[in-house]
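Why does this matter for the project? Reviewers at the last site visit asked to see concrete outputs rather than summary tables. In response, this paragraph embeds two records directly. Each consists of the residue sequence and, immediately after it, the corresponding structure tokens. Nothing has been edited or filtered.
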Amino acid sequence: MANVLLVSPALDPEDRLTAYWHYLLDAVPGVGQAFVDHVSSRSGLAPSKFLGSVDHPMGDRANRPDFLIRCQDYDVLFEHKLDSTLGRHQLERYLALCQTRGQQLALVTARSLPLEASVCASPWFVRPRAPGAPAHFLWQDVHDIVRGFPDRVARDFAKYLEALGLTHFDWAGLGDPFTSDEAAQEVRSLYDGLSPMFRAPGVSCLKTANSLIYQIRRPFPPVHLINVGPLVSVAEWDRRVWGRVMALWVWAPRPGGGHQRVLPQAHGYIRGSSPRIFVDDQASAAPVLYDREVFQERQYYVPLTEVLVRSRELSQDRLVSFVRTAIDHLRGRRAHVQQDRNDA
């Protein structure tokens, strides 16, 4: 049996989730069968008896699939995704591996990912067949399955998924912006309320294609870039907020690509903000892809349910208020409350 107490703290979030999922399937009778039944009933795959699972089964030099579910009548390889995207021809390569081994392939993600038509049409690819459903399975469905088991390990795993934002979310009857095109388009329309805040000469605002991110470039010195948009979770690096958030994150240039911060350190929450807006400067300070001297230095976030409410108009008002408050703090116009970093 897998032992979560031996999981390396150096594992990335996707590998850690895979290790915990493996432990749950080994530890709690019935969860594996319930998951196999879910996959088969939604894909048209024949029902079969769950036999066991393998964390990161053997692949080959080019292919490292995440997970294997063994059934009495077939085996299914699984690729797991959270925030990362698929690698170049990743599923195509895995399908070729499956054909040589007589296995099936499935994908489990936190958000809807576009897939090549050739992948969806492959007889080796297992996917939901319901009209309008994503062409792959979702961790949100795993949460629905697991929370029905009274075992302590299952309840803890369900809470872990909740912390990562991997639960079903329906915004005003439109669906989940991470999995519904209609809901995503409505979120993008809310960004129209932000453009009046950034009309200074040289500032550009952009709704990114195939993304829920709104970019504000060169808003004011020394800030080079501000991104606004929802995140599935920040719980991997900040335990103050569980589940989905609306975030604003800030990049600034560091001449020479050095380690010296440009913005002053800020970790806590903005005084008087309601709902509370958290400030974080501990996230990975990685440069943007197109400029190695521009680094992420700060994030602001608030629970997504405090922004996306039933009224579209009120949702836009709350988004504008969140961004305006964060910008005021960024420009030194609002105080923040310092917190002990051990509380994060």
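We now turn to the second protein, recorded in exactly the same manner.
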Amino acid sequence: MNFIYLKYFYDAAMSKSISAAAKVNFVSQSAVSQGILKLERILKKSLITHRRNAFKLTREGEIVFDACKRIFQSITELTENLALEENQMRGRFVFACSHSIALSILPKPLSVLKKQAPLVKPSFRLANTSAIMNLVRQGTIEFGIVLDNVVLSGFDKVRLGNGEF
């Protein structure tokens, strides 16, 4: 499969326009159209409806476009990672906490994290303590932040602070 044809298709689908894809890739509209036609032949599927001035993806085109999003996101991440120093922290993690913890405790540490490790991408969910415990058990999140007013046996624990909340 030709990567250039995939890029032409992806850019056209993103902008819903052959001419916009041509501009982004510094080629003619004909080159983009020909590339998409060749990609359709390779895949043996129609990816767009072929009507003048009406760009629309077919069902198969939607599937290919979703895959392209992941492919080009991976390429972007690869490029960013290769440009980094080897010892720079990077990656994603998911955790959960209560709404009150998210409002009162998280803003400052997340701000510090963003400055010190800009390539670390935290994502969090809001939930009550029992839901957080279930999310940890299921492996949906890496960790949870809860108040110590529940029995946490069976979990690894780290005390983050003392005092009144």
